[in-house]
Amino acid sequence: MLIDTHCHLDAAEFNLDRDEVVTAALQSGVSGIVVPAVARNNFDDVIALSKRYKHCSYALGIHPMYVDSAELADLEVLENYVRDYAPVAIGEIGLDYFLSNPRDNPENIQRQKHFFVAQLKIAQQYQLPVILHVRGAIDDILKELRKCKLSGGIAHAFNGSLQQAQQFIALGFKLGFGGAMTYDRALHIRELAKKLPLEAIVLETDAPDIPPEWIGKAGRNSPKELPKIAQVLADLRQVDMAQVLDITGANALKVLPKLAYLYTPVKVLL
Asked: Please, what are the domains in the chain?
């Protein structure tokens, strides 16, 4: 089973051909697409997508890059939505120290941390996994996760160290790999993809972002690229594609258990 565990299908880049994008993904063999929210103003959008496309499901959360435009009251709105609409996860949440350096912008970092910790508590209260944005902030994210007993989750677009990966795994998390892994020069990410237990990996596109090598960094990523991304992982690990599909699909269902009743396997076409 092939599941895109992270795709921003609600993004404006898909406004002109969203139906065709979903159809192409399903025809390529993608069984399901998880669409994480990033802010209060797109909660309704990602929920609507799950109603429009039966193979889509949604997570609800406030992304660290959007906390400056968020209001504290949005956290209460999030909890109400979680209670009433039962997302598969809380996400996309986390910390981002790449665009906002702690030394240069401490007020923003403090606000990011406030929103992150508050959303972890919502996930804990409703026994939901989390989908994490971890760019440049893995140690601080792990620090907060150790304080809050969760149902696990996914460290999206993982590019940390092997030791950090092992700490996430010990906390019940899976690690998301996607288009970045397809570039020959991405030596660190590709080495992680080889060395980490396959049982710790889930596949994702982050579409329309992080396009794979065959599209190029200026192109629009799409969930239909996931089978070829899976093939790259199989080639790196020197295993059969079927093994990658079976195990990463099972990993997605394990870490996001509400997906289990939504998807049935379809034939993958490369």
From this structure: 3-259 (3.20.20.140)
